[in-house]
Structure formats: structure tokens, C-alpha cells
Write a structure and sequence with these properties.
heterodimer, A: 355 residues, alpha/beta, Rossmann fold, CBS domain Like, 2 domains, 6-stranded mixed β-sheet, globular, disordered N terminus, disordered C terminus, B: 243 residues, mainly alpha, MetI-like fold, elongated
Amino acid sequence: MSTSTTAQIEGPSAFPQAAPLELRHVCKRYAGQREPAIPDLSLEVVAGEVCVLVGPSGSGKTTAMRLVNRMIPLTSGDILLGGRSVLEREPNELRREIGYVIQQVGLFPHQTVSDNIATVPRLLGWDKQRTATRVHELLELIGMDPDDVGPRYPAQLSGGQRQRVGVARALAADPPLMLMDEPFGAIDPITRARLQDEFLRLQERVRKTIVFVTHDIDEAIMMGHKIAILRQGGQLAQYDTPAEILTNPADEFVAEFVGADRALKRLGLATLAEVELLAPNGLKPGANKVALDTTVRDALSQLLAAGGEPLTVFDEREQVAGIVTLELLGGLLGNGSLTAGEPASSGGQGGEPAT
Amino acid sequence: MIALAAGGPVIPTFGGGGSSFTCERANRLFCSSWLSRNWGPVLWPALRQHIVLTLIAVTIGFVISTTLALIAYRRRWLERPVLIITSILYTIPSLALFELLEPVPGLGLSRTTAEVALVSYTLLIMFRNTLTGLREVPDEVRDAAAGMGMGPLRSLLRVELPLAVPAIIAGVRIATVTVISLATVASLIDNEGLGVPILTAISNEVFKTELIAAGALAVGLALTADGLLVIIQRLLTPWTRAA
């Protein structure tokens, strides 16, 4: 039943169509307003990467995102999806090619979960069998039982389940680009952390180009390959990898926005596996143990809790991998050897494509 | 003035002669013997006419008010003028409206005149309910529909109108019950429906069975129609009961 023409969730190579996105001198001025919401924004998103737009309210991050699928008309400049201007496209046809997830989800209350997910495939005129197969596949992809959840109405789901269905609906027609506007903003913190984790794992499999809007810098650091920090008035303050933004904030605004604990946040980007540990010789394994896939930040926290006593690091086969001390971690921040580029899901297999 | 002259025989039609009308002659409050004799010739045809009058009025009113609501949903400025006009129509006393319409060329004492008046009473309720129902569709639902590439007409037909169905049917229910009640008065104009036996009975000072029977039928018809509409709504909107 679930073998199909659309069985494309095997790995990155099955998604040749994830498209690069480029914003070229994009300007948006709302009628009747003196200052443009976005004066002049240019940025490029590599195919298959997550670009997070982050900034305080009034920084135009949602506006910038909605310009891409022409939910808001562009004043000037151009936006290229897969090298082709979105302005040349018929808006509805363009939108069917771009996954769209919003904070309030916007599931159709009068349709079942299955029908909601089938929205874009039906707009594209897929036949019944192909649509049904795809719906089934997506519900499994987001960890839901198709036979149980499929026939339910959105009102019968929890907030977290609704958000997952929203993501599945956006993925339905296998779009080359996804736009996500604070998708986890209205979810309680515990569920949000789980959804973020799930989302990163999902992205490892589907490898979409994603524009992700949030006001939460920690979420931006966790989700983004690259982060675009916007300031009030729609100006781009910095566009770089999370590690680079945390290490070298472009200016006062960025430094303040990422927070005084940016050194700690940087430690949260890497796991002990990426750190050159001290050799265990001479030291007998102590009582304080830590796993190799722990983030450096969490390891530091454990070191402090242990009163500065060294921790013994074990790998997944329970073998001693090395020793970590306060001095070692202190040195890391200074010499810039922590430059993790991939967002680390705390589930932890780094950036390896699923095979 | 149009009034009672149009209303057929004013003396209750006891039907036939002889000694079997003791109840009627004694002027008891309710005579079941009269009822069983007059169901076929008087009440059943009146009930059928009443149903037809109501169906026509509610259907035409539904088409007009839904059309206006759909236009006003897209063109906000239309809402106020439509509300003002339909409110005025709604507040005109029914007797006065019949009197006003009667001299209009082409109307006169006809079913058309009755329907014009009945339809005019349905407009405000159904227009306002449909428009409110459409406006209450959550913004994020509309946004999601547009963002997935539905286009305005598709979004309206597949998302917004279905979500407005509970409000729309609530309007149809009120309009239907109102028309069933007002259609009894419309008998003054077109001499049909349950209003005919009621008017006949009113003009008779003592014999009330006809009044009670026809009145009860009108109430029963209103309750039945309302119940049917509730069932229709439940069938159309299974999602409203999903908790």
C-alpha cells in the first residue's frame, strides 16, 4: 500500500528539486506609510538549507517571508526561486509549489486531517490513489497513525499534533521551498522543544530549502544553517552561520540581540565529539561520566556542578573516549576551534544524511 | 379594507345538516368531529398551500440575501445600505405592508403580493447571518487557503462558505419560522394557507375549533420545519460536533 510513485523520503538525493532562493534588493513599502517596511534586502539561501529570519517585532521578518510567495506584493527588487523570478509566475501556481506553515496553523476545521493534507495535491489535480498514498506516507513521516488520525477533525487534535499536521500539509506536494512563520510560537515550551527536534530530524530526511521566521534567537540558533538578523525598520543587521554570529556579532544590536550568554550558546552548538579531548592516560576514570554526544554547553554545566572535577567521556560503545576539564573548555572559546556549521538536533547524529 | 371580504364563507361550514352537530351547536371550545369532517376539504389544502407559500418565500429570500451577503463580503461598503433597507422592510408592520403593496400595478390581491411581502421579511435575518458567518471564518484559515494557492473563488466555495454553514442555517431557521407565522396574515391578500380558516374563525364570534386547529397546524409546521433544518445542518456539518 505504501510503496508508491512518490516514495521520495529516502534521503537527500531523492530531492533534487530543493531550490535555491535569492532575494535581490527587495523593497516593500505599504501604501500610506512613510518608511518602507523593508528598504533594501538582499540574501541568498542555498538549496536544502534552513535560513532563519529573526528580529524584534517591526523588523519586517514576516513581511520578507510573505513576499516570497507573493502573499504580499513586492514594491521593487526581485525574488528568484530556482533561478526564476517569482514575479513571472501566476501567484496561485507559485504558491502550490511553496510549502506554507503559519503560527496559528490554519487547518481547515471542516475537513478531516487527511483532507487537510490532501489540499495541495488536489489543487494540482493528482489522482485519488496517488493523493491517498501520499497522505498516508506523510502521516507516517510525522509519526502519526494514518488510520487513527487521518479521519479526525482538527478540533480533535492537541496543539502539537495540529502543528505537525500543518507541516505535513505543507510538505504534501513535495515543494522545493518551505516558508514557516513562527511555526512553534503558539506551542507550550515542552512540546515546542520536541517539535523542534522532530523538525530537525525531518529536515535531515527531506532536505528542503526553508525560510523560517521566529523572534526567538535560541530557536534561530537551533534551526538555522544561516541566520538573518533584522533590526527595526527592516534592515539586515547580519547574515551568517549561527557560530559566526555568536563569535563575531556585527554590531552592538546583534550582540545585544543574541544575548550576553552568547559564549554559552556557542558551546551549545557543538558536542563533545567535535572537541579534542584530553587523553585518558594517567587519570583513572572518575565517578563523573558524560556521553560523547552531549553538547559542550551541557558538559560545562556538569563540570560546574561537579565542582570542577574532570569528567570522563564515554562513546556509544561505553568505551572511554577521553577526559574533559574546565581548562580545556575555557581554551576552546578563545582559540575559535568551535565552528560547528550544522544545527545540532539533541537527538544527535549531527549533519549526516540519513541513508 | 382589503380584508375579510376576500376570505370566503364566514360562517363555519358545518357541512351537511341533521342532528350530528351537537358539539358545534353547543359551541364547545374544540370539536373533534368538526376536525375529522373538515380535514380533507379545509385544513389539508390550507396546510399544503401554507407549505408552498413558505417554501417559495424562503427560497427566493435565501437566494437574494445570500447573493447580497456574498457581494457585501467582498465589497464592504455595500453592507450598510443593505442593512438599512432590509431593516426598514423588516420593521414595517405586516398588515401595513400588505396594504401598501396591494395598489401596486401587477400585484393586487394575489399570491405574488403575498410572496413579495414574505420575502422582504426574510432578507435582514438571512443577509446578516450569512455575512457574519463568512466574516467569522478565522483569518489564519483564510490565510492558509490563499497561501496554498487556492484563489479567492475556490477559497470561498471550499473553505469560507462551508465554515459559514452553521450561521447560514441558523438564519434560514429564523426566517422560516417567521414566514410560517406571517403567512397566516398573508391570507388576507391571496386567500390561501392556514390563515384562511383562522380568519374565518376570527369572524365567527362563538365557534373556535377552526381557529384552534389551524393555529395548531401552523405551530406544528413551524416546529417541524425547524427540526428538519437542524437535521440538515447536522448532516452538512459533522465537524461541528467533533470536540
